[in-house]
């Protein structure tokens, strides 16, 4: 009995500690959902997976379980895309999530790793400065000098760890990594082994190992994948939300959970305010008003759903700390302007024109027009 209590206490302490971190990993934040799913999941699991592909899909898309437990949707969009992504990870091909910024590539990658392996932290951030050691392994130079190459002097990369443990390694922004470094992945993905010639050994991947990479096509200085590497990946393109309703729902859900995590002292935003921001984003993105009557100019930046979430969230902080806790046009104006005007000259013209021709004329939008003109 006492060991059970001790165990419970330890779990409690871990839970408390997780509550004070600014951002929990998916497997921490949604631990309860993952547990409930595991309990009822009797379907076949690929080797070393914590859940069946069916349960992973349910975790991503959300559902009410037979016992009434609510699984929140993580990805809002076409379930087929998630099925393809999950099924890919059960094969010998790696998964590449591709698309414009802010389409939930990183978000989906984290949740997939959390649901499949219970660990989303085996992460390599791709940058122009990412070198081979970040993907393969490095050396602890102090030990290397004293002992020479030895297993203890080896600095294990997240990739090597994922191979050893049969887990999923995540690579963020793969196309920002220089091409010759990208190609170190070829052996890992095709032979499923990581040779360490200095120690005359290799690390062979255990069952369950796979890689999820994300890449976007809008970055400056992207390094296209070589065709040899591309062949090792199955690409799933994540689109921008196709309907207004879907986009509003994404923003609403994410704002609610972010607001809770940040403990913002503001009320839940009115759906109407979310609709206004999403409308503006969609119209500017598409270059015409939703009723297709008016053409508008397109600003230089990508106005993604992720940015709409930030604008509302920013507005909530303004409303909570400087206003009366209710999100209004004044609280949104600065954030909106900041998101849209990325180029101080051209985008300012675009935004001004949109304000004059669309926002000013729209029924019930005068408050937003005035607030935005004030900060521009
Ligand atoms: N279809 C979607 N379903 C759920 N959340 C979404 C969707 N599209 C965007 N988001 C939200 O947008 C935010 C940014 O997504 P992120 O994964 O960082 O984008 P990127 O594609 O640039 O990696 C996340 O908080 C995510 O929840
Ligand atoms: Mg990303």
TrEMBL record:
Give start and end of each ATPase dynein-related AAA domain.
Answer: 95-233
What the entry lists under Pfam families is as follows: AAA_5
- Which superkingdom does the taxonomy of this entry point to? Bacteria
Q: Which residues form a coiled coil?
A: 8-43
Recall the GO molecular function terms of this protein's record: ATP binding; ATP hydrolysis activity
**What keywords are annotated for this sequence in UniProt?**
Coiled coil
State whether keyword Coiled coil applies: yes
Q: What is this protein called?
A: Dynein-related subfamily AAA family protein
Instruction: Record the organism.
Output: Thermosporothrix hazakensis
